[in-house]
Specification:
The protein is an alpha/beta fold. It is built from ten helices and five strands, in the order βαβαβαβαβαααααα. α4 (89-97) links the parallel β4 and β5 (102-104). α3 packs parallel to α4, α7 (158-168) crosses α9 (184-198) and α7 (158-168) packs across α10. The longest helix has 15 residues, at 184-198. It is globular and about 50 Å long. The termini are far apart.
Length: 222
């Protein structure tokens, strides 16, 4: 079954370009489009979608609030934020709202397609350096909780905390395995336990929580 994709952007030409790229893929299908957040929410009520490509700056309802409402629903589609600028405060808000990652609108087609497939398979687009720089820049500007306000962190083992820090620093499972001298399968197990214990949906939410609690500080220090 192909990945069902929805395009949400107020620029028709951009949607057309994305649709052409996705339509050429045997494993993808554009099943819906919308020009703003309100229209997107209405369309999603009647259309089954796996991945939403979501613009942030739109009339009526921006992509951040639309993402928040989508991700609050039962069994929501995954959301990939699309942003024009490399460092966009809206993208950070989108990650906090539940998006599984963000991409630049001028991303090479191959990277966009890889991101859609990764998100659909349950991964999060969190490793690119742009995501890291975005978090480093905007995390200190937002209200920050401390670890005492998140006692669930105390449920993590010492190893799981180590893994969480490395996730927040943008390392892949393979890189974490090499750093900690573990098998990649063991790292995947740790990641799964972290998500379960903290009630998080994906790696992006792990990263955001690590910054908010001070487990990882802006600039990358753990």
């Amino acid at each position: 079954m192909p990945i069902r994709v929805m395009l949400v952007d107020d620029q028709v030409l951009l949607r057309t370009g994305f649709r052409m790229v996705l339509a050429a893929q045997p494993d993808m299908e554009v099943v819906a489009e919308a020009g703003d957040g309100i229209e997107a929410l209405e369309v999603l009520r009647a259309t089954a979608v796996d991945v939403v490509l979501m613009d942030v700056r739109m009339p009526k309802l921006d992509g951040v609030e639309a993402t928040r409402r989508i991700c609050a629903a039962d069994h929501p589609p995954k959301v990939l934020i699309l942003t024009t600028f490399d460092l966009d405060e809206y993208a950070f808000s989108g990650l906090k709202a539940g998006a599984s990652g963000f991409m630049l609108k001028d991303v090479p087609p191959g990277e966009l397609l890889a991101a859609i497939r990764a998100v659909h398979s349950g991964d999060a687009v969190v490793a690119p350096s742009t995501t890291r720089r975005l978090l480093d820049r905007f995390a200190p500007m937002l209200p920050t909780a401390n670890q005492q306000q998140h006692p669930e962190l105390n449920r993590l083992t010492e190893r799981e905390r180590e893994v969480m820090v490395l996730i927040a620093q943008g390392l892949s499972n393979g890189e974490i395995a090499a750093r900690l001298v573990l098998s990649e399968a063991t790292v995947k197990t740790h990641v799964g336990r972290i998500l379960t214990k903290l009630g998080l949906r994906d790696r992006v939410q792990v990263v955001v929580l690590a910054y908010e609690t001070g487990l990882v500080r802006a600039g990358g220090a753990g």
